Hints:
Rossmann fold; 11 helices; 6 strands; globular; Glu/Leu/Phe/Val/Trp_DH_dimer; oxidoreductase; Glu/Leu/Phe/Val/Trp_DH_C; Aminoacid_DH-like_N_sf; NAD-specific glutamate dehydrogenase
Amino acid sequence: KGGIICDPRQMSIHEVERLSRGYVRAISQFVGPTKDIPAPDVFTNSQIMAWMMDEYSSLDKFNSPGFITGKPIVLGGSQGRDRSTALGVVIAIEQAAKRRGIDVKDARVVIQGFGNAGSFLAKFLYDMGAKVVGISDAYGALHDPEGLDIDYLLDRRDSFGTVTNLFEDTISNKELFEIDCDILVPAAIANQITEDNALDIKASIVVEAANGPTTPEATRILTERDVLLVPDVLASAGGVTVSYFEWVQNNEGYYWTEEEVNEKLRDKLITAFDTIYELSQNRKIDMRLAAYIVGIKRTAEAARYRGWA
């Protein structure tokens, strides 16, 4: 992970471009198609990835689409990459709901965050028939026990995912987590579910779409309350998985359809979910610890075969 401390909402598009290119010049010796590969995150988009790819290619004196992922399709981006994080969360929700006997079509869902992942997730669930009863952005939150009109909100949000500033009847982020719902999805920033609010959460399933939204103490509290917590390392893996798919396609020079991408993603994530959930049940541990055990075991086994241990 890396980034620039700035607020692109206060910058012109030309300033963002110059900053993006300057960032690549600063990190160029540490990254590359066979070293470390950047990908989109908060306040970035495919245009920024395109500028960065172009700058690296200029420095490398070779067209290097595999240097970065999340690019526009015309520059070697993958079909479905823009919504892959959200689709991965949907797959995790479906698998978790199945274990708890919940039909997603009848579920009440709260989503913290209405950026790239949160907005696509809300749209996916809305189209599936679920009631999205709460959403939030950086300025506040909206709640409707009968379900929010997601299409209406998407039509009115700005490029940074802001929409609540258009409404007078809003609630706080604290109140958002207290909404009576079946599934809670933190899809914003880190450390949002803590020991101070974990007891107030009414959802029976929490699916982490953001990176590190739940503190260790809150994880313990939720687990003791029999809340099924699907950790970020699994639930938010859709984006990084399709980034890998994009890199593979760049290397092959052959590109898949969106249906192929989504099918491969679904296969990967369902297999991972099954493995982690089964271990968590057998060991009577939370899914985060189970995911770490699976990952460390695979890494240790690879190291042993290579003679590192």
